[in-house]
Amino acid sequence: MSPPKSSRTKTRAVAPKARRVERAQPRRRLAAAEREQQILDAAVRFFAEVGFAGQTRELAQRLGVTQPLLYRYFPTKQDLIERVFEEIYLKRIDSNWRKLLTDRNRPLHDRLCEFYTRYADATYRYEWIRIYMFSGLMGEEINRRYIQVVEEKILRPICIELRQHCGLNERGVTELDLEQVWVMHGGLFYYAVRKHIYHSRVAEDFAAVVSRTVDVVLEGWKAAAKKTA
User: Fold this and answer.
1) How far is it, in rounded angstroms, from Cα 156 to Cα 226?
2) Which of 16, 41, 146, 171 has CA atoms 20 to 30 A from the CA of 153?
């Protein structure tokens, strides 16, 4: 005997929920200038990590591109190294630094302190320091070229200002003068080496370090000038 209609269980076919199909978005094709900059930025990070012994094959893998594509923008590894040098060394040299150093309307102490604060902000960085050290160990030419640029655009002007400050002939910059300024420049550079290469403790107040260093240099030059007078 069949149950009453009112007690019958009505069954309805339930259509399965439609699944949302996730379509992979097509990778945006970069313009040539964007792709070149992308490769260059990645190369800076890559060489800072592994040094110039790192292979372009690995760099291409990190970028997710083929090695032939990388070589389309930088035909050789040396071409890429040259662009890295230009990007993180030459481009960071500010033409206004020389104007700052030679502005005799301000005390030399203040000029030197402001310059080294600006210089450190532009150069005492992880990538800059590590690539500089790696390239030096590998005997790369870029270090020697950078030293020449620094000596001509920064250290010689400092020597001239120091000689003027001490009442000496401004045109008589000697090798000893340059060596003394290199000691100051190199000492402050070593602050960054200790921080980014050795990961050792450094004084937090870099401005105070610069100020005391400049004080010592100015007093030393004055004392040396008196001996030669």
Assistant:
1) 21
2) 41
Nearest to 165 by CA among 113, 106, 211: 106
Amino acid found at 118: R
Q: Determine the Cα–Cα distance for residues 184 and 15; give it in Å rounded to an integer.
A: 80
pLDDT, tens digit, for every residue of 6-46?
444 444 554 555 445 444 444 567 789 999 999 999 999 99
Whether residue 126 contacts residue 46, with contact meaning beta carbons closer than 8 Å, is answered with no
Give the predicted TM-score (pTM) of the model: 0.81
Contacts of 174 (CB under 8 A, 6+ apart): none
Gap between the Cα atoms of 92 and 102, Å rounded = 19
What are 124's two structure tokens? 């005492």
User: Residue 74's closest CA among 86, 62, 83?
Assistant: 83
Is there a contact between 84 and 44 (Cβ–Cβ < 8 Å)? yes
- Secondary structure of the chain: what % helix, strand, coil (to 5)? 70, 0, 30
Pairwise CA distance, residues 38 & 103, whole Å: 39
User: CB 17: neighbour CB atoms within 10 A?
Assistant: 6
Q: Which two tokens stand for residue 29?
A: 């094709």
How confident is the model over 126-159, as pLDDT tens digits? 999 999 998 888 887 888 899 999 999 999 999 9
Whether the Cβ atoms of residue 51 and residue 143 lie closer than 8 Å to each other: no
Within the chain, how many helices (H) and strands (E) appear? 11, 0
